[in-house]
Amino acid sequence: MTQRIKHKVARWPMAFKLLAREWRSGDLNLLFIALVLAVMTVALTGFIADRLQRGMEQQAAQLMGGDLVLRSPREIDAQWLQEARDRGLQAVPTLEFASMVAGDSGFQLSAVKAVASGYPLKGGLELEKDPRTQLQDVSADYADSAGKLPASGEVWVDRRLLTALNAAIGGEVEIGQKLFTITRIIHKEPDRSGGFMSLNPRSLINFSDVAETGVVQPGSRVRFRYMFAGDLPAIDAFKDWLAPRLKPSHRLLDIREDRPSVGSALDRAQRYLQLASIGAVILSGVAVAMAAGRFARRRQDTVAVMASFGFAAPVMGGIYLRLLLLLGIAAALCGALLGFILQMIGTYMVADLLPVHLPPAGWQPWGLSVGTGILLLMGFAGAPLRQLRNVSPLRVFRRDLELASPSSVMVYGLALFALVVMIYWYSADARLTLWLTLGLVAVMGLSAILTLGLFRLLKLVGPKLPMRPRLAVRSLYSHKQTALPQVMAFGLVLMVVALVALIRNDLLASWQQQLPQTAPNYFAINIQPFERQDFAARLDQAAVKRSPLYPIVRGRLSGINGQPARDAVPDNAKEDNALHRELNLTWRSDLPEDNQIISGRWWRDDFRVQPGAMIPLSLEAGMAERLNLGLGDTLSFDLAGQIVTGEVTNIRQVNWDNFQPNFYVIAPPGVLENMPQTLLASFFLSDEQRRIVPDLVKAFPAVSLLDISQILAQVRQILVQVTLAIEVMLGFTLLSGLVLLLAAVKNSLDERLREGALYRTLGASGAMIRSIQRYEFVLLGVVAGLLALMGSELTAYLLYRNLFDLDYSLSFTHWLVLPLSGAVIITLAGLWGTRFVVRQPPLQVLRAG
Hints:
Elements: H1 2-25, H2 29-64, E1 68-72, H3 78-86, E2 90-103, E3 106-115, E4 126-128, E5 142-144, E6 154-158, H4 159-164, E7 172-175, E8 178-188, E9 202-206, H5 210-213, E10 222-229, H6 232-242, E11 251-253, H7 255-258, H8 260-298, H9 300-308, H10 313-349, H11 364-386, H12 408-427, H13 430-461, H14 467-478, H15 480-514, E12 522-527, H16 532-541, E13 545-546, E14 550-560, E15 563-564, H17 565-568, E16 583-587, E17 595-600, E18 615-620, H18 621-626, E19 634-639, E20 642-654, E21 665-667, E22 678-684, H19 692-699, E23 704-707, H20 709-747, H21 749-761, H22 766-804, H23 812-833, H24 842-848
Parallel strand pairs: 3-9, 6-8, 16-21, 18-20
Antiparallel strand pairs: 1-10, 1-11, 2-3, 2-7, 2-10, 4-5, 4-8, 6-9, 7-8, 12-22, 12-23, 13-22, 14-15, 14-16, 14-19, 14-22, 17-20, 18-21, 19-20
Helix pairs in contact: 1-10, 2-8, 2-10, 2-11, 2-20, 8-11, 8-12, 8-15, 8-20, 10-11, 11-12, 12-13, 13-14, 13-15, 13-22, 14-22, 15-20, 15-22, 15-23, 20-23, 21-24, 22-23
Main location: membrane
Subcellular location: Cell membrane
Keywords: Cell membrane, Membrane, Transmembrane, Transmembrane helix
């Protein structure tokens, strides 16, 4: 009993002493380096991802003017604003409404915004420094408003309104019943949304002047936007407090709702950053497992000797587990510190390339990286080292007495548990955890089966090969217990890197397709039917890239399936915006670009509605889901007092991110042509082509030209930062893959040393041994490349369909590149890692073995 207590008390001091001894011997180097690199990679990616994510969200918040926005058709309870301020948040209201602005030379419909002190909470309101700058001068200097707002009686306007009214700084305009003096020209608003009302020429007035205009009356169509800004925890807490108090007419917006084009990019980028980081964690974990397995095998003799002196093997196993924990803590701290230092150096070196200044990282990456290091050890290295508890003292006399392999259930169970915990901890996304875990388990299981099958095939064809490749095949098959995890590790490296690169390419391609350099930067609305040909001819004459001119009929959804619309929808949809405003309806014979039928069928190009027949309608998928509509439902629209009823025959998925004209409801030709209508078009103007804008304004005074260049520029700035984050994460995933490659090569180094010594004892030259090894690594690389090809395509299919909302297609380039690159990369890494095999004296190796 005394002996047991003594051993129990002495385990930690002995673990410290053993750690120092093992460190001096150099046997811990590989495991320590693998741990440090694993934690450093996690820390590096964590710090950079955290800073880039914060930077992206900070930049994105500037597009809304705050961290959180509450939109309402009427004023909210003043107590809500007070609650926000009590929580340490800033709160600023704005009010938007459409109104005619009267000048000396005419009228112009304007999007009027009334702002209060503190606007904007995020971002900057840019004003032209020189109010005399002409429209054609695109190099004008701009200045931030620095918190200043229009004084009472002043109005700030954008240049489009100034041009349309033929007004100037110091001139007077009338909004409703109040006269305003134009004092500044707006260049850029941080929170300008993409709705058609806000895309009209802007007028900015003081909130205190709204009542005197007389424009806003009970029942007027207005939009209140309440902006909130502050610390993220306070924002989240206020959001949770506010959510149950909201009415159906309220909308609580973050960047993903307020800017869908930016929000979808942020969602995909966030998932990609999570995926790339998880890929680095998986590769690092396998590297740790291989390094720990090699260390455990090399420590069997030490444990056997200590057991022969009275130290029970379980005691020594416990001491080595404590040693592992100490090593893990040291490696985790070193790796986290190195990751922090490297990300500071890296972001400093590329600071000029960043769209915005990156905010400092939070504390989460510290805890995440250190915790990941400990979890990696317990999950991936714990099982091999626990087997040291089973070493027999007889091994001192019988070197052939091998330690039984760890239980597969224990090894893979612990690793899988650690993997699931890390994926969910890192992503906080149950769907990503589920699909990635299922994909990896399926891929690894199939990989094991296919690898064994390929090894059997190699055994059959081996005798027919020349001597050196024949010896390489025989070596692989005879050591398949080592070769199997090695080829799976190689395949995992190639699979993760290929998957991360594939998703990166497709994400960037989708964003490029969404926002090409010639994406429409102007909308033209209120084109009259008699102006159609002349307007199109003007644009075509200037070689302007444009969309078709879409006819628009304004109509209110009045009935669903014979009932009033509000009575026919679910309770949570009764305040849906589609029920309380006029919708833009159009007609087409062909399916619009970037629209996809997900239910039903589109009508034929030559289809025409027969007299008395039900009118077929095409409905947008989001509206159908919100209002619980489906195929066969009938919709009635009030079109200027005339009721038109149709049946939903197909439902479309619409890409709202492409800055093209899109519609909720489309009818076939021959239904709406006789209704009052205007036309809509979008087009792209280069800097040189912008000279035609004044001519268009003069030639078509009733047409409203909406310049969305500022919105496009803001979205592109976000995408630049997202792209940089993706490139950085891809680079560090490659680094993690390289670490695993070297660990996998080192894992078989002892066997290769013994095999090389035997070959040399039998008279083989160093060149012959290197040639045999080269054939081995080429075969391993080709097999690993085939496994990576299968795994990356399967996992990409699951992720594309369930997470990234991308169209999946087979990447035939990978069918050639992965096996070839696998052979080249693994051969080079393998030959470099085993370069000492032919340098060790054979007698020394055989005596040690």
